[in-house]
């Protein structure tokens, strides 16, 4: 099953629509995380302490706000630089609105798949911090079933829910793995990712391993002509090229 892509875009219609919805939700999530800053975290969660005041802060809410703002800033700077237009002011509301206005351009960019994925990841992180008792969902990779262009999504239920946690495809509901089959799924993912000795890294992996923003990864890849390949919407870069530039 193949998802339809609007003319000129590198992502499907549902991803484009979700991207715009996520950007619209950012100001509200940012404010909700702010309200959660002094709410006691759940048992087992980290707490950070503000020096000199003895106020315990919810570390998840602090991190979520920092990541949300940082990613808005990075992508806003990329749009301003490549579109030769004025950057928005540094408020979350202004930057989210700015990216929303440029949503079509961003989703036609060579980095569209990772832009959409990063904004979705940021949204999920903020929702977990803002609404800690909600069911958590996050992408874990491409579907392992043959001829399927979907992505695998882990659905982690709160402890008080009776429904089981599972990993399922976001296109075909029949492609699902309950918790007791996750070892089997892990083996299939490992076989699918086998590359015969050569290692390829996603933009997110490069970003995390070397502490770079996603937008900077794309700039380095372009400037240094890293070899790349695509698997569906996900882009991979040849590890040796990455190491030569930033190793």
Helical run tally: 9
Within the largest sheet, what's the order of strands?
A: 3-4-5-6
Q: Overall pLDDT, averaged?
A: 80
Extended strand count: 9
Shape: globular
Q: How much is the radius of gyration in Å?
A: 19 Å
Provide the structure class. Answer: alpha+beta
Largest sheet: 4 strands, antiparallel
Helix content: 40-55%
Summarize, please:
With 247 residues, the chain is α+β, with helices and mostly antiparallel strands.
Keywords:
single chain; 247 residues; alpha+beta; Arc Repressor Mutant, subunit A; 3 domains; four-stranded antiparallel sheet; three-stranded antiparallel sheet; 9 strands
Describe the structure.
The chain has 247 residues and is α+β, with helices and mostly antiparallel strands. The chain folds into 3 domains: 1-130, no CATH class; 135-188, no CATH class; 200-246, Arc Repressor Mutant, subunit A, CATH 1.10.10.10. Helices cover 49% and strands 16% of the residues. The chain contains 9 helices and 9 strands. It has helices spanning 13-35, 59-83, 92-101, 103-108, 112-130, 182-193, 203-210, 214-223, 239-246; strands spanning 47-50, 55-58, 136-142, 151-156, 166-169, 176-178, 200-202, 228-231, 234-238. The strands form 3 sheets. Strands 3-4-5-6 form a 4-stranded antiparallel beta sheet. A 3-stranded antiparallel beta sheet has the order 7-9-8. A two-stranded antiparallel ribbon has the order 1-2. A hairpin with a 4-residue loop joins strand 1 (47-50) and strand 2. The longest helix is centred in the N-terminal third of the chain and has 25 residues, at 59-83. It starts with 12 loop residues before the first helix and ends with a helix. Residues 43-53 have low confidence and may be disordered.
